[in-house]
Amino acid sequence: MNKKQQKMLVRIIIATFMLIVLHFIPATGILKLTLYLLTYLIIGYDILKKAGKGVLNKQIFDENFLMAIATLGALALAIYDRSGDYNEAIAVMLFYQIGEWFQSYAVGKSRRNISALMDIRPDYANVERNGKLEKVDPEEVEIGNTIIVQPGEKVPLDGIITCGNSSLNTSALTGESLPRDVKQGDTIISGCINMTGVLKVQTTKEFGESTVSKILELVENSSSRKSKSENFISKFARVYTPAVCYSALALAILPPIFRMIFIGIDPEWDEWIYRALTFLVISCPCALVISIPLSFFAGIGGASKEGILIKGSNYLETLSKTKYMVFDKTGTLTQGVFEVNAVHHGTLEDEKLLEYAALAESSSSHPISKSLQRAYRKSIEASRISDIQEISGYGIIAKIDNVSVAAGNSKLMERLNIPYKDCHSVGTIIHMAINGIYAGHIVISDVIKPNSKKAIDALKKVGVEKTIILTGDAQKVAVQVASTLGIDETFSNLLPADKVAKVEELLSKKSKNTKLAFVGDGINDAPVLTRADIGIAMGAMGSDAAIEAADVVLMDDDPMQIAKSIKISRKCIRIVYQNIVFSLAIKFACLLLGAFGIANMWFAIFADVGVMIIAILNAIRALHVHKL
Fold first, then answer.
1. Is residue 212 part of a domain?
2. In this predicted model, what pLDDT tens digit does every residue of 328-342 receive, in sequence order?
3. One domain for residues 372 and 474
4. Which of 353, 275, 235 is closest to 593 using CA atoms?
5. What is the C-alpha separation between 21 and 405, in angstroms, rounded?
6. DSSP 361
7. Do 427 and 459 fall into the same domain?
8. Which residues partner with 166 through β-bridges?
9. Whole-number percent of the chain with pLDDT over 70
10. Which of these three, 397, 416, 445, is where a domain ends?
């Protein structure tokens, strides 16, 4: 509880105590009025102050103005009638403030929960200087510096482990409770907690560009991207509040005038003014204005706990309507860990062909290139390589020991007008040409992730109508993966631009209310992630391209998280709609009762504060998504 909430709670307790005491004190006249006014000011001075500022700034119609007019009017009526019953006006303000305190506490609790879940910002970095460790601000550490991460400390910056091995707690990033083992040579990202051994890490990014900074920025900015529901509520409140104010004014004036002029009976001004004031209290739109943004905030926070980062409530709403799920294959449905399985039709020895392929591909960070280098099992001599030309979607051309080497797919061979031999094996085929003559091909296979089949089944259970693979791999590979997993459609041999074109084609065929999501690794699929209705980057820890291009970032590489993200979004949207329908239904019903004199001020308190508290409690349910 912060200081502001504590002060408010003290005021509520004092005002409640004074109301109880005044009930038993036999005070009358001016003394009684003074004591009640003092109680009223203790509990309501801040509302009166806000209402006054709103009038001065010409932003009159808000909940503070409604409460100020309603309670001051009730006090004026009590003075006019000389009834001495000031309890009603003070009770309305008191219960309103209780509701406001409860709302403030609920939002604060939600924020604290999210802060605890995302408490990944490191306080310091250990830099080794003159044989001693110095604690410095992570922002002062430059790229290439060596930092020491002790057991129990947060990893402050992204880097490569140069010495040591340990287990990392990545739960704040991925939602995964199992530790991740790391060793010398492994990449390590900021935000993890080092659990066991001492690690020496050479930094590869400045703090502002590190994973932890990107994630914190993403979560902090998520509230600025509003959904259609939130925008609707904002527009609704701007129209609704002045409408009810003018309606209350009409209720206070028109019926008495009608009774006096056309019927010729007592106008009963005080009765109709009381109804108008009750109408104002009932009409306060707090439940909607507070609970809808809180629902989305809680939904985004609950998703963050599970390692699902959603950039805004608009994306949460779009995700809930997803019916088309389009996948990249490598690294998304498959592990992206390639192994060389065979060398076929070689005019050179297998080892020599592998050597040429590994050297030619050595400058690439693609998983296939890494697999060739692992199969070669020797260190790469950069001095032997020159004139490297990487052709996106085709392959690489380079000179190895002044020998021209082309390594790539069949499209590269066609582009170079080199006849090649097809391979009947299922896998990624790297065709090789030496000095313009076909020299054979290398078969590389990927492995399907253990949860991919379950993930596709889970997506169909949550209502995804069509699943599609877009891949640059050969048709045989794509079809085999699709048939194994139960994917509906497959498009193969696609360049990055072809994937964008295919997504645009799919977008043009679907209905307006049906949304298409693309799931990729976030690096080479950035254009497609941007073009889809919603882009989901999976297994993207440490990938700047993923965090920048995607609308949803899954910090784990488990495809089951895709279905979970949809479930979270749909639970959140259900709660939003529940609050909208419930709040409006109760409001309009109570407004009618107030207009006909059936509802009094006490009833109005329930219509305002009671509905707000119920809506807030419902909104907080969006934070609890672990068991979805």
1. no
2. 887 788 887 777 888
3. no
4. 275
5. 95
6. T
7. no
8. 182
9. 90
10. 445
Do residues 444 and 473 lie in contact, with contact meaning Cβ atoms separated by under 8 Å?
no
- Can you tell me the distance from the alpha carbon of 318 to that of 515, in angstroms, rounded to the nearest whole number? 7
Integer Cα distance of 347 and 152 in angstroms? 56
The closest of 544, 94, 572 to 319, measured between CA atoms, is 572
Among 75-84, 134-143, 318-327, 449-458, which stretch is predicted with the lowest mean pLDDT? 75-84
List the 166-169 sheet strands across, edge first. 180-182, 166-169, 193-194
Number of domains in the chain: 4
Those residues whose C-beta lies under 8 Å from the C-beta of residue 251, and which sit 6 or more positions away, are 272, 275, 276, 279, 595
Q: Could you say which of 555, 583, 599 is where a domain stops? A: 555
Question: Strand, coil or helix: what is 179?
Answer: coil
Q: Is the same domain home to 281 and 252?
A: yes
Distance CA 51, CA 425 (A): 76
In this prediction, residues 33-48 reach a mean pLDDT of 92
CA distance 549 to 380: 33
For residues 500 and 578, membership in a common domain is answered with: no
Identify the active-site residue in 46, 119, 181, 328: 328
Residue 249 is assigned to a structural domain of this protein: yes
In CATH, what number is assigned to the domain containing residue 405? 3.40.1110.10
Count of other CB atoms within 10 angstroms of residue 83: 10
Residue 546 binned pLDDT confidence (cut-offs 50, 70, 90):
low
173 assigned to some structural domain = yes
Cα–Cα distance, 398 to 407 (Å, whole number): 9
Strand 466-470 and strand 489-491: the pairing is parallel
- Is 612 in the same domain as 521? no
Alpha-helical regions (H) of 57-190: 63-81, 87-117, 171-174
pLDDT at 227: 67
Q: CB-based contacts of 237: which residues, under 8 Å, 6+ apart?
A: 285, 288, 289
Binned at pLDDT 50, 70 and 90, residue 455 comes out as very high
As a whole number, mean pLDDT of residues 475-503 equals: 88
314 within a domain of the structure (yes/no):
yes
Both tokens assigned to 242:
């002045």
Which range, 26-40, 59-73, 236-250, has the best average confidence (pLDDT)? 26-40
pLDDT at 294: 80
CATH of the domain at 174: 2.70.150.10
Specify whether 328 is catalytic.
yes
SS3 251: helix
How high is the pLDDT of residue 542? 47
- CATH code, 491: 3.40.50.1000
- Are residue 367 and residue 313 in the same domain, yes or no? no
Which token pair is 196?
A: 């066991």
**Do residues 192 and 235 both lie within one domain?**
no
Expressed as residue numbers, the domain containing 396 is 339-445
d(CA 136, CA 131) in angstroms, rounded, equals 15
pTM: 0.70
Does 108 lie in the same domain as 171?
no
Answer yes or no: is pLDDT of 411 > 60: yes
| Residue 343 buriedness (CB in 10 A; 0-12 / 13-18 / 19+) | buried
Residue 84's φ and ψ, nearest 5 degrees, are: 75, 10
Q: Is residue 289 scored above 80 in pLDDT?
A: no
